[in-house]
């Protein structure tokens, strides 16, 4: 059997299935109070435990195991966005996100207990995010075994390599199909979840304009509203992409543009326009007070750690699910349709 390692962003997959399986009255409610009135319509078991997200995630994982036939599997989790090293460095990091609704929050320990009983390796720590474990595990094992990362977080683009591919969950199945038809016109050679698309280094470059190892610099310049990463105000993707491809790091960029006189400024603008195709120069924005500091902080926040101390060996990630235990778990949670 060909060995294969799948690394799953558990927080991403659970929340995706939670929201994907919500009753319409909750999805279309305009206020939190209105949403809470309909929480009783969310899938629950006889104990009153909310299970819609856990059921959807479990079903998706079983499909992956059945069709992808991985030999090794691990799930990484976020614990709290308020305790990570990124929040400690930048208090506004992910500060615009609302509280996790309690029907979803209650399903995290439920899902983690289920995976624990099934013997699936899990990784989490208050200081780190799930991405950091995906990065660490992929870099640790990718040269020993073909590695695949499943997440909806585009931060993981930076982890794509010749040894690691990214299964990026799209906003819709139609979007995934559109990408597949664009890059795999003869049909994909893989069969993953219906809203996923597989990215290689070549596809990352074609789709986003930069190589995977430069995705962090792109975010450092343009920012990320979803994570409240500031970037450099006034710098958009149109000018950032060619700058990233030319300089590759924030330090290289600023080494070229800082402490320049008027003549050198004109030369840089002319070079950017003629050779990089940047018609509207972002130089003035890049040289504003605090711009470099904002770019460096954004670079720090956007960089996934790949060196967390992890003692687990590849053998610790081997799949060895006990069918009897799985059946008991599914009966307790009332996932009866998943019992073979």
From TrEMBL:
One of its GO terms (biological process) is DNA replication, Okazaki fragment processing. Keywords: DNA-binding, Hydrolase, Nuclease. GO terms for molecular function: 5'-3' exonuclease activity; 5'-flap endonuclease activity; DNA binding. The keyword Nuclease applies. Residues 3-320 form the 5'-3' exonuclease domain. InterPro entries: 5-3_exonucl_a-hlix_arch_N, 5-3_exonuclease, 5-3_exonuclease_C_sf, DNA_polI_H3TH, FEN, HhH2, PIN-like_dom_sf. Gene3D superfamilies: 5' to 3' exonuclease, C-terminal subdomain, 5'-nuclease. 5'-3' exonuclease acting preferentially on double-stranded DNA. This is 5'-3' exonuclease. It comes from Anaerobium acetethylicum.
